[in-house]
Amino acid sequence: MLCFDPDERQALLRMVTATFRFYEELNDFLAPARRKQEFSVPCARAATTKHMIEALGVPHTEVELILVNGESADFSRPLQDGDRVAVYPRFEAMDVTPLLRVRDTPLRETRFVADAHLGGLARMLRMLGFDTLYDNHFDDDVIVAIAEQDGRIVLTRDRELLKRRTVTHGCYVHALKSEAQLREIVERLDLARSARPFALCLHCNAPLRAVDKADVLDRLPPRVREHYERFSTCDVCGRVYWEGSHWRNMRRLLEGLLFNDKSAGTE
Ligand SMILES: [Zn+2]
Fold first, then answer.
1. Distance, CA 107 to ligand 1 centroid (Å)?
2. CA-CA distance, 182 to 195, in Å (whole number)?
3. What is the mean pLDDT of each run of 10 residues along the chain (267 residues)?
4. How far is Cα 111 from Cα 152, in angstroms, rounded to an integer?
5. Neighbour count for residue 156 (Cβ, 10 Å)
6. Around ion ligand 1, which residues have CB less than 5 A away?
7. Rg of the chain taking only CA atoms, in angstroms
8. Are 115 and 138 a contacting pair, CB within 8 Å?
9. 174/25 Cα distance (integer angstroms)
10. Which of 177, 138, 178, 176 is nearest to 154 (CA)?
């Protein structure tokens, strides 16, 4: 039956107003006037936390915890008039295990698909042993499909890509240079301890296999032949790897990340 009561009709059409506060690096996605402070916004009646958070510019993949009026809420929570919404990224220093996170099913394996601008980062992740698909011909639809099919984490600097509904796990990469990007991802996902350097080919993402020096001798530059004893090869492209300067840089970076972890834990 149709309702013609003018007050009730008014109420149905009314927007609700909710107050938001975003924390830490989530502020980078907001309009400058809304950063690091509470602000009120009108929301459509049926709007959920996810709708509004993304409408304000923050991809859902960047959000780890939402509190509505002080209680943890998920992405599907409809907003009501007067709600106060606090939105947090992954916590570094605070134990949130008693609180319900928005995403409670971690992927079984840490695997990535990187967008076309992140080739340097993709190679560095492979260098640490993390399976990372990358091809500068992948368009957004292909990246989304791969992520969904293989259960991969999308790495990108394109926040619109992370707003896609089917992208459940993604990381917005803030840094511009590959090494800083790697540091950012390793820290955010706490990867330092699960790194397996020298496990994957930087070029093909295929597993490396240890080989005897004698078997690859003819493929080595003279100086490498003199100074190195341990070698691996990729069966896809035939490249040979040894623990040269790239490797030493990577070790230093990893050790730095692990050392940071330790000092944070004991203080
Ligand atoms: Zn290869």
1. 26
2. 12
3. 55 80 93 95 91 96 90 92 91 50 64 95 93 94 93 93 90 93 87 85 94 93 92 94 83 74 39
4. 5
5. 23
6. 201, 203-204, 234, 236-237
7. 23
8. yes
9. 9
10. 138
